[in-house]
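Hi W.,

Here's what went into the run:
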Amino acid sequence: MKIIIDAMGGDNAPEEIVKGAVAALNEFNVEIILVGDESKIKAVLANEKIDRSKLQILHTTEIINNNDHPAQAIRKKKDSSMVVGMKMLKDGIGDAFISAGNTGALLAGGLFVVGRIKGVDRPGLAPIIPGKNGPFLLMDSGANAECKTQNILQFALMGEVYMKKVFKMESPSIGLVNIGAEEEKGTEFVKECHKLLKESNLNFKGNVEGRDIPEGNIDVVVCDGFTGNVILKVFEGVFQTIFDTLKEEIMSTTRTKIGGLLLKPVFRKFKKKFDYTEHGGAILLGVNGPVIKAHGSSNSKAMKNAVRQAVLCIEGGVVESIRNEIETNENNNNNNL
Amino acid sequence: MKIIIDAMGGDNAPEEIVKGAVAALNEFNVEIILVGDESKIKAVLANEKIDRSKLQILHTTEIINNNDHPAQAIRKKKDSSMVVGMKMLKDGIGDAFISAGNTGALLAGGLFVVGRIKGVDRPGLAPIIPGKNGPFLLMDSGANAECKTQNILQFALMGEVYMKKVFKMESPSIGLVNIGAEEEKGTEFVKECHKLLKESNLNFKGNVEGRDIPEGNIDVVVCDGFTGNVILKVFEGVFQTIFDTLKEEIMSTTRTKIGGLLLKPVFRKFKKKFDYTEHGGAILLGVNGPVIKAHGSSNSKAMKNAVRQAVLCIEGGVVESIRNEIETNENNNNNNL
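Here's what came out:
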């Protein structure tokens, strides 16, 4: 099993990316191909203990930055670590691709380099978010600002496959983001989506309101990419705000500092529970191979977890299952015509 | 100054509503009309010290419940505390109306009983949310699931007036919810909204992403009611989840219990800072009178704060200012044709 990693993507590249790859090699039974500036990668590796037989470096000369225009960067920067890495996935040189780089470019590369699974209208980006009662998948979280109802149904089908194959859930529950529990709530668009999901064979639990999403009782939360992106970022923002504020207050007096020390195990446990990198990155579902978008600020631990996620995707046959699922669903639709 | 209060709306009616009214009478220079079941209201008042000369009770026989269909309830329950109260606002018997009852019915009543301000296409519901660096107004938070671009511009105009008149801000900043900072991001709809806001005389700061909303650096955050409702509820849900989880963990061992005790002042301060009832309820902007939707779970303190908010709205002349603002904006548009 070979995992291709974009060594140059993300705020902490290449140091943390390379260190994460090393940690993954030491923990999982995988081979890794690091794509990027060879001398920089080697400089990091010099300080690491590692079985070099399982690690390849593929030298590239270009980097896609966060300021690059996504589609243009994919078209023009042919020797960038991201484009070369995705091309290798497409060509079967590796089994999965991971990058912490420019999200838009990754989405464009998913479409134009890796390519869509036949029958998938729009691939979607799906982060695994820690909820109170368990992790859940949010799809789409920003690949498609505008969606058709058929896209939402496909997001649900693909998300279901992921939770079945990676989290070994028997019948993942599906929820549609809406502004009320009742069927007749929301825009015309979500009402249509509701109808489609209800008619499907999915374990559809109806609408899910913003208030209930963090509970984590729904395994696959579907919505258009505009709404999903807003949800994801509000999540991050509220967490950050709460912890920044608490930290400031705790550090303000001796009494509260001592209280903070005593609560260290609580905060540590809490941080682990709600660590969004615990289950890896966001997975781009609907393309011809496992493509994982690690958070831009990924450290080595986040990268290692992304490799674990890639392994689970490959072992679970996520891409093949999506292919079958979409085909079956298309056939059913044709039979119903 | 006379404030009309729906004594029967909300999870804790009439007890907490009536107690909140009493607290408001003791703190502010107002008169209050409690609308609802007279015997039940009097039963609560029996235990309260109060100057009855400033308090009227208007007996009604019906109640709009949360299960009632909003528009039907407004049409059919003519003697409900909500319909009668709104009718009194419309007729000038009182200067503002507050209810913690059925949100949908309140919105319907705003349109059909109180009526829109001339030129306002769609009134919007705007909660005041505590951000890290100050409170901000989110509009629309659910009155209009589908919006036209013109609605978003009017939300911004009305929100600006509110922040000027109630929070005494000189030039409130306006932000448009979007999935990226750049102008060209998002759906066709938000791109059009961006253009309209940029061309206006508003202090438009561009797009605001979900991550930045909780900071509270933008005073008026505008979006369609679907997006706004999701944002509001994710906010509530994440706060609730974090505090439930922390509480459970803190209560789990003696060490952490002691830590929790030492941190009491921190949590208290935090709770006050992020208490969504601190600035009252959500204001329905765009109708012919101040209509305030208090949270369904409002206690007496929340009701008292809603009365303060009503007083500030009346003193600031929010409704008159919106009327002028919308008229001026319409004239400008006509001159530009």
